[in-house]
Amino acid sequence: MTRARQFLQVAALLALAAGTMNPAHATAFAAICNDLGCKGGDDIIIQDNGAGDTIGSLGAISFATSAFGYSLVVDTVQSTPAIGSASAPQLDLAFTATTDSATPSTIFLFGSDTDFLTSGTFDLALGGTNSGASGTVTGRAWGGTSDTALQFSGANLIAAAGPLSGTTFSANAAGPFTAQIDPFSLTIGVAVSRSSPGTSTGDLNLQVAAVPEPETYALMLAGFAVLGFVARRRKAAA
Ligand SMILES: [Ca+2]
Ligand SMILES: [Ca+2]
What we know:
There is one protein chain. The chain has a single domain (27-212), classed as Jelly Rolls (Sandwich), CATH 2.60.120. Helix content is 16%, strand content 45%. The chain contains two helices and twelve strands; from the N terminus they run αββββββββββββα. The strands form two sheets. It has a six-stranded antiparallel beta sheet with strand order 2-1-6-11-8-9, with no helix packed on it. It has a six-stranded antiparallel beta sheet with strand order 3-4-5-12-7-10, with no helix packed on it. One calcium ion binds at residues 33-35, 38-40, 42-43.
């Protein structure tokens, strides 16, 4: 075996071991929908730095619109590289939803991104306000079953927080999270269901933290062992 080939094999092993440290090359999405599944083709989907996004930096989306009886501001949807990383997934959605309807419908806001790598534990936190203590806000997180943005259903629901009511509200949900494929997408969403005119605001945040896997350590150790072997061979040959 040539030295160059040995070097390439060692480099490949180390790259594998370091795989969880690679940055994500993903595009974040935000969505406003009049149904929980964003079905029917009548929903508003904004791509990071696409039409409607008023934040020029990558990993952060902001937009405002009127839709489905609400005046809506998605203050920000944030993902990598603005917050978190492929190996430390984080999604954040901050919103303001105002309606003057006496019989408001439920509105659904989403943030989503792809190319996450890390399983382990999740923490979903929701907090906000309802003017007039009107209606409820529910936060949800989905993912780990595909690498498609805004891919969510009852089947890949990770957790829900709420429905929460009151003039101010906060709750969180936490537990183990194991993705079924790698890399994978994550989506967070809030359902705002007001019962009177007024404004609901809030922030929904999802974080996934790694629980280091034994295989990762084993692979890294194997990589270092090969490095040491090559170094000894090189020393012996010199
Ligand atoms: Ca729809
Ligand atoms: Ca942007």
